[in-house]
Structure formats: structure tokens, C-alpha cells
Design a protein that fits this description.
Blueprint (H helix, E strand, L loop, with lengths): L2 H22 L7 H11 L6 E5 L7 H5 L4 E6 L2 H14 L4 E5 L12 E7 L8 H10 L1 E12 L6 H11 L9 H11 L2 E13 H7 L6 H11 L11 E3 L2 E14 L3
Parallel strand pairs: 1-2, 1-4, 2-3, 4-5
Antiparallel strand pairs: 5-8, 6-8, 7-8
Length: 259
């Protein structure tokens, strides 16, 4: 790991150690309809052995565990794993194990899982293609890879990224929809398909779940207030009863590993 990778990993650890509890409390991240959309589109079955890379507090791990035979959740942040264990106990789900590890060097043997999934990790990575290669390595032949992440249109990405870096300094760069699909194509995955959805999050809830630098929260409020009729950010923000709502553009990419 070079110096820039190490520094960025430290930034991720700093941010997500603080975000472990508030991130898991944002209503949109546990939306049952969205969870069903993701699991249905992924094609996960009762026979699957699933790995959730950068699982955070396990918010998408749990829906997969309700279908698959077994799921492993892995994250670089110990506090996220501890939060996931607390939530697992509350839900009484028994077919999940948790590991601490790095997305660039997954602590598993080749061909270990029939499905690999990751949500909201690629926009925090300096090298998403390297993480995808690792996911493919530990995936069994004919197994599936599912990546769920933000995907603003190219013409709005600069404004989107600026806002997100204010909110969370560990944000690197959002891939646009074409880049997500090309990433899959260039990796050698086949039978690639994609689905899109919007995730509604109230602005103040989003700010409270993050830890922006001092003064950046007011910058964020100003950006959204000025963007209500313009939608330069890609959030399509709306005001309802005095509150601002953001609509995060998301993509689900699913591909199959060749023999």
C-alpha cells in the first residue's frame, strides 16, 4: 500500500469509526423496498454463499442473509463491525459471520463465494477497479458480482462530488452510470445488467450522520437551497414542510464471473 492509499484508508477509518451508529440510523439505508429491489435484481438464492465487502453496519448484509445459505460481512472499520454485531443480535439472524479486512486485499481464498456484493464503497476508493478484481478473485466460476453505488450523470458529477466531499472528506469520486458498466466490462464479467433507483434522504439527517469539517455543514445547506430549481448537483432536491430532501441517484450493477 503506497502513502496515498494509506492516508486515504486512515481517513476512511476516521470517518466511519464516527459514523457507525448514525449511519445505521438513516431511514433510507434500511428501506425494505430498496433492499428487496437489490436482492431480487442480484438473483441471490437460498444456495448462495455471499460476501458483503465494505459491509459497514451490515445494512445490506441482513437482507441477503434472509435469503442466502450463509453471508460473511467484511469491513475495514472495527467500529462498523461491532455495530453490525449489535444489530445482528437485535434481529436474531444466525447465518452471518463478520471479518475485518481491506477491499484491496480480501482475506479469503480464490473461488470462496458464489456471490459478492458491495454497497456504497466504490465512491470511497481510490482504485475501484482493483477492489473489483479482488471481488472477482474470491468469487466462484459462474458466480455473481453485485455493486450498488451512487451514479450521478456525468454533467452533474463535479457538483455532486464537491457536495459529497464537504459532507464526508473520505469521498473520492462517484462513477457515472457508463463508467460503472465499463468497469464491469473491462474486468471480464459477462451477462452484465444494471438497474437504477433514487434514495430519498433528508438533508439534516444526512449531515448528522456525517462529520464534515467545521463550517462545511452550512455550505451544504446553502448549496441545496440554491439548487432547488436548478438540480446542478444531481440530487433533484425538494423542500417539504420546511425540510430539504435529497434524492441520491443509485445504480445496481450485476455481472457473472466466467469459467
Amino acid at each position: 500500500m503506497n502513502l496515498s492509499d494509506k492516508k486515504h484508508s486512515e481517513l476512511i477509518l476516521e470517518q466511519f469509526s464516527k459514523q457507525a451508529v448514525p449511519f445505521s440510523n438513516i431511514p433510507g439505508h434500511t428501506d425494505e423496498k430498496i433492499a428487496n429491489l437489490i436482492t431480487n435484481f442480484s438473483g441471490v438464492t437460498q444456495k448462495d454463499i455471499v460476501l458483503d465487502v465494505a459491509c459497514g453496519p451490515g445494512l445490506i448484509t441482513f437482507p441477503f442473509a434472509k435469503i442466502a445459505e450463509k453471508v460473511t460481512g467484511m469491513d475495514i472499520t472495527p467500529e462498523m463491525i461491532e455495530r453490525a454485531k449489535v444489530l445482528q443480535d437485535k434481529q436474531g439472524i444466525n447465518n452471518i459471520t463478520w471479518d475485518i479486512g481491506n477491499a484491496y486485499s480480501l482475506p479469503y481464498e480464490n473461488n470462496s463465494f458464489s456471490m459478492i456484493v458491495t454497497r456504497y464503497s466504490f465512491h470511497h476508493l481510490l482504485k475501484p477497479s482493483a477492489a473489483l478484481e479482488e471481488m472477482i478473485r474470491v468469487c466462484k466460476p459462474s458466480g455473481k458480482i453485485a455493486v450498488i453505488d451512487v451514479a450521478p450523470p456525468e454533467e452533474k458529477r463535479a457538483a455532486y462530488d464537491y457536495f459529497e466531499r464537504l459532507r464526508d472528506p473520505s469521498h473520492t469520486k462517484a462513477l457515472n452510470p457508463v463508467e460503472h458498466i465499463k468497469l464491469f466490462e473491462n474486468s471480464g464479467l459477462c451477462n452484465i445488467k444494471a438497474e437504477f433507483y433514487l434514495l430519498e434522504i433528508e438533508l439534516e439527517n444526512q449531515i448528522k450522520s456525517s462529520f464534515p469539517n467545521k463550517g462545511d455543514d452550512d455550505k451544504m445547506r446553502g448549496i441545496i437551497k440554491n439548487d432547488l430549481t436548478l438540480n446542478r448537483t444531481g440530487f433533484g432536491p425538494k423542500e417539504k414542510d420546511g425540510n430539504y430532501f435529497l434524492y441520491y441517484p443509485n445504480i445496481i450493477c450485476v455481472g457473472q464471473k466466467t469459467q
